[in-house]
Amino acid sequence: MKAISKLSREPGLVVTDVPAPVCGPADVLIKVKHAGLCGTDMHIADWDAWARGRIHPPLVLGHEFAGEIVEVGDHVTAFKTGELVNAEGHIICDHCRQCRMGDGHICRNTSIIGVDRDGAFTDLIAMPATNVMPLNGIPTSVGAIMDPLGNAFHTVLSTEISGNSVLVIGCGPIGCWAVGIAKAAGAKQVIASDVQGRRLKLAKAMGADVALNPMEVDLNESIKDLTEGEGMDVVCEMSGHPTAINQAFKAARFGGKVQLLGLPSGEVPINLSNDVIFKGLTLYGVIGRRMYETWHKMQSFLSSGLLDPTPVITHTFKLDQIDEALEAIRSGEAGKVILEIES
Ligand SMILES: [Zn+2]
Ligand SMILES: [Zn+2]
């Protein structure tokens, strides 16, 4: 079967032929219909420092996907063939301390599909049945983005939103979804910040009350004006940019919550005394999705119509158009890019 692979320890991705995976007794075999392309795939394609330290080629990429079950392992009773599903791509050990305390998203032994083992940019993927979620009527094009959408849900809904003011810094796809989720969850005011006008437009389309470009306005002064000098109840930092992380701490009100999802590429200098400790901030590091609380929340928001994530999906490509797909992301023109995988 055709697959988007990393074959050697150098930049680039190739479309190759790989053998079909075997469905183990506790697995289901899924025919992939849609898959999402994201920053992680860009890092692997570009072969940056993170990729060089983590990735062991040959590897089939892809960790965001949805499709149809075509085979069910002997020990699996919860699923049948023909069901449309997606899956949590973090495969966890179930026996470390975090797993056994219900915090599987921070399992010390996590193996990620498309990163640590073969992924979903191909026709078939075998997944442990415990990771698989039924789509319950959600189309596979949306099912394919529920991994990054789940990051947004995890970021926003792990603190109190109802009646609170929320600032989202960094309006890539996950930031734009965070805006929509905060609105849907009853935030009194949602402010979006990004250095790109095109992204701010998308944030507005997802419901941001105010969109600010910190290259054009003084973000902290604007926040003060918009909140009667108080600052924000909740700040979601989605960019990982050192300046933005500092802005996040400054924008939060005394006693505010700062949800940190964006990954900086190195160390970030922070005035901990003035900007965190004396302000009594609570910081939360967001990794993955809570298993499976985040998935159930997400399904509720999607199937009830509380959130429509589709305005953020701007481009769809076929599997062998991977170069064009990467180019669309690099150009800065794209929101979320998905692949349509036909057999
Ligand atoms: Zn991703
Ligand atoms: Zn574990």
What is the correct CATH architecture of the largest domain? Alpha-Beta Complex
Q: Would you report the number of β strands?
A: 18
**Ligands present:** zinc ion
In DSSP terms, counting alpha (H) and pi (I) runs of 4 or more, how many helices?
12
**Largest sheet features:** 7 strands, mixed
Give the count of structural domains: 2
Q: In which range does the helix fraction lie? A: 25-40%
**Whole-angstrom Rg:** 20 Å
Question: How confident is the prediction overall: mean pLDDT?
Answer: 97
Shape: globular
Order of helices and strands: EEEHHEEEEHEEEHHEHEHEHEHEHEHEHE
First and last CA, distance: 9 Å
Assigned CATH superfamily of the largest domain: Medium-chain alcohol dehydrogenases, catalytic domain
Fraction in beta strands: 25-35%
Class from secondary-structure proportions: alpha/beta
Named CATH topology of the largest domain: Quinone Oxidoreductase, Chain A, domain 1
Query: Which runs of at least 5 residues are low in confidence (pLDDT < 50)?
Result: none
CATH class label of the largest domain: Alpha Beta
